[in-house]
Design a protein that fits this description.
The chain has 3 helices and 7 strands. The protein has one domain (about 10-150): Nucleoside Triphosphate Pyrophosphohydrolase. The longest helix has 17 residues, at about 135-150. Helix 2 (about 125-130) runs antiparallel to helix 3 (about 135-150). The strands form 2 sheets. Strands 4-1-6-5 form a 4-stranded mixed sheet, sandwiched between helices. Strands 3-2-7 form a 3-stranded antiparallel sheet. Strand 2 and strand 3 (about 35) form a beta hairpin. It has helices at about 45-60, 125-130, 135-150; strands at about 10-15, 20-25, 35, 35-40, 70-80, 95-100, 115-125.
């Protein structure tokens, strides 16, 4: 049975290349707000299924669930007031689970109409400065520092 309200559980998926170019999407509802792929868990999905679905819906990139890396990291944050109407009355916080997907090279993506206006690939440090969300920024910095440290 489906609910009219969104679950306060979501995913953040960093899509990146081996060279640490990060894909960012510009929100349609807030021009100038850049982010990685995000989305709420739907009824009956496990989180990696949510991540895989959101990647395809928002970018057109088809990934196998085994290609989506679960960071086993979650962040809890307050939902912006302007978006609380999407959730059941009294829900004020969301738990976001972090994932990543490494693809061979940067290229064009297919945006979800109505969700995003534009896309761009940026080097990880620049991408971390460009995103509006602290959870997105911190995840990009962790990815960059981890991968750079292994080289």
């Amino acid at each position: 049975m489906s609910t009219a309200f969104k679950k306060p559980v979501s995913v953040l998926v960093l899509i990146h290349t081996p060279e640490l170019e990060i894909l960012l999407l510009e929100r349609a509802s807030h021009p100038g707000y850049w982010q990685s792929v995000t989305g709420s868990q739907e009824e009956g999905e496990d989180l990696v299924e949510t991540a895989t679905r959101e990647v395809e819906e928002e970018t057109g990139i088809v990934a196998a669930t085994e290609d989506i890396l679960d960071w086993r990291l979650s962040n809890r944050f307050e939902i912006f007031q302007e978006w609380r109407f999407r959730y059941a009355p009294g829900v004020s916080h969301n738990t976001e689970h972090v994932y990543s997907l490494c693809i061979p090279s940067a290229g064009p993506v297919r945006l979800a109409p109505g969700e995003h206006l534009s896309w761009r690939w940026l080097p990880w440090k620049q991408a971390a400065r460009a995103v509006f969300s602290w959870t997105n920024r911190d995840a990009i910095l962790m990815l960059g520092e981890t991968v750079s440290g292994k080289r």
